[in-house]
Design brief:
- By secondary structure, the chain is an all-alpha fold.
- The chain has ten helices and no strands.
- α5 packs antiparallel against α6 and α6 packs antiparallel against α7.
- The longest helix has 51 residues.
- It is elongated, with a radius of gyration of 32 Å.
Length: 231
């Protein structure tokens, strides 16, 4: 009979089991635990292998994500330094190549700004809606995107949608007063005087609580004048 190969599977498994048994003997574990480990050592090794593979996979993914993020930041910086159509082209490349990174979101914000400057509100709205749908309410970008998106809808004559977005904006600290002021303006455009007055009064209340000499604020003075005109 030919000599058994040193790489024979059964021989390897037998050797592994033997080594495990030797280790268990040396650990001086309670008999019950030793018996349990002997009976289930194959399953235990499978679980350990899975855990090792998982840890390594997560580490590799994190490393790749960090690399992608750095590349995306560099690409965004390059795009923002470009001019004209080249700038648009490079920004679009960032959104496509690094879609899962924050840089891609900022690239879309830049594209929306460019489109807005060209009076292409449809494109600007589409870009910002994409960003809005990709971020959570905890993201610092959220109120900024809502404010600009609401303004674009307002400029485009879609006043109901603008009101809805300003209402969303009103819950964010630091944007509440501005949101009520904007809603007052939109309700005036919609010829909804009671709603406009209510929003403007809310604005006055909020800015008065903010401290300072609010009575001398030109915006507050204009709001107070508008309320009188609406009454």
């Amino acid at each position: 009979m030919a000599d058994q190969s040193a790489f024979d599977r059964n021989r390897i498994e037998t050797s592994a089991v033997s080594q495990t048994s030797d280790i268990l003997d040396q650990l001086n574990l309670p008999p019950a635990m030793t018996l349990f480990l002997r009976k289930n050592q194959r399953a235990i090794w499978v679980i350990v292998s899975i855990l090792v593979i998982t840890v390594v996979s997560v580490a590799l993914y994190d490393s790749y994500s960090n690399y992608q993020s750095k590349q995306a930041v560099s690409a965004l910086d390059t795009a923002k330094q470009a001019e004209g159509e080249k700038r648009v082209e490079l920004l679009q490349q960032v959104t496509e190549k690094y879609a899962s990174t924050p840089s891609a979101l900022w690239a879309r914000v830049e594209l929306a700004k460019i489109a807005s400057e060209k009076k292409d509100r449809a494109t600007a709205i589409a870009e910002l809606k994409n960003v809005d749908g990709s971020i959570s309410g905890n993201n610092p970008m959220k109120p900024l995107v809502l404010y600009r998106l609401a303004g674009l809808y307002e400029e485009n004559g879609d006043l109901d949608t603008a009101i809805g977005l300003y209402q969303e904006l009103a819950v964010f600290t630091g944007f509440t007063a501005d949101a009520h002021y904007a809603m007052g303006r939109v309700y005036v455009a919609m010829d909804k005087k009671p709603e406009a007055i209510a929003q403007y009064n809310q604005y006055l209340s909020l800015t008065e609580k903010a401290g300072g000499n609010g009575q001398q604020d030109p915006v507050r003075a204009r709001v107070e004048y508008t309320i009188k005109q609406l009454q």
